[in-house]
Amino acid sequence: GDSVTQMEGPVTLSEEAFLTINCTYTATGYPSLFWYVQYPGEGLQLLLKATKADDKGSNKGFEATYRKETTSFHLEKGSVQVSDSAVYFCALRQNQAGTALIFGKGTTLSVSS
Amino acid sequence: KAGVTQTPRYLIKTRGQQVTLSCSPISGHRSVSWYQQTPGQGLQFLFEYFSETQRNKGNFPGRFSGRQFSNSRSEMNVSTLELGDSALYLCASSNPPKGTDTQYFGPGTRLTVL
What we know:
Chain A is mainly β.
């Protein structure tokens, strides 16, 4: 079945450092890919998404490119802030109505000033 | 537009009891999905409802059930609670029919089973 693998954390960075969180997937066809973020005590917030190969999703300085050839959707940010500290989840969803999001296990990011 | 709301936010129950959680989707959204989040298993899909019909179900025992009302609000029920049911239960709403639609999540209900 479909699955998502993301790098294990925690990832600890200093403010203004460059961030990369790796995500690879296994799926049939061309699913949509997502990054969600979860702040302590809260639900999931959509960070960005891409729905077809070579699409780049971006939001709040974060970017990820849908790479079909390497089945990857790595999350990047050029300069992290303390407020980016959270858990980041990579997910995929097949493009049929009613299908579920399949999540990776999450990567905890901690940014210090 | 108001986001997805879930009630209650916190719940403490004892083994063997049953519990009902509620989810109100974003206005106009007709699909509601439920997920269970635990430290060990991560985020797992429970079920999805659209127009009062369950369209998809995850790999959970029959103790987990749900329903959706005509106003798209949804409830999930867990009967005969077990310690392992302690989790954050997240509800997400979206507006199909496209499979590329985005699911928007509520803050979750934290269930603790003692």
